Amino acid sequence: LEVLIACGNVIRQASAERSKLVTFNGSAFDLPFVRHRMLRAGLSLPGCLLDGSMGRWGKNHTDLRMVLSDYDKRAPGTLTRWCEVARVAEPTPHTGASIQEAVDGGWWDELAEVCRQDVRALAELYGAIYGVGIPGAGGDAEANNLMEGLDDAEF
Asked: Read out DSSP for 117-138?
């Protein structure tokens, strides 16, 4: 429940600040999952999850999987594969089954590291596509600050 509340708060804050939420397959999985779980838990949904601003075509959301596949939800392509193509840091290899095993085993530190590496890979892929700075490459101070803060983030 705490994770859902925190997730809702982050989404609300990003929307209020007119920040952009960047996901990989978030339109098809992450955002619908968050909506479903919040409703099931009796939590109020952030308005941006209902008004379309965080949806597939929303101005506050970029789903890199959709951008890279020309909005064809059936097109192949994983985060790992697109990172290889763009020559940026790749996420930790994992599958739904390995994530479930980690959850079942209570391996929270390992899960947190997988999340950090996924976010880092996503940020670097976004930077490669849109030409914003990433750590070690100079450029955009805001992007660099985000990545530096990721190392201290608690999941």
From this structure: HHHHHHHHHHHHHHT---TTS-
The whole-angstrom separation of Cα 138 and Cα 144 is 8
Q: Measured between alpha carbons, how far is 120 from 116 in angstroms, rounded to an integer?
A: 6
d(CA 119, CA 30): 13
What is the residue whose two structure tokens read 């409703």?
Answer: 39
pLDDT value for 54: 65
Specify the DSSP element, H or E, that contains 16.
helix 2-16
Report how far residue 78's alpha carbon sits from residue 75's, in angstroms, rounded to the nearest whole number: 10
Angle, CA of 114, 151 and 121, to the nearest 5°: 50
| Full-model pTM | 0.73
Please say whether the beta carbons of 68 and 27 come within 8 A.
no
**Residue 18 and residue 80: Cα distance in Å, rounded?**
28
Element (H, E) at 67: helix 64-68
* pLDDT tens readout for residues 43-91: 988 877 777 666 666 677 888 998 888 888 788 888 888 998 888 888 8
Residue that the structure tokens 């989404």 belong to: 11
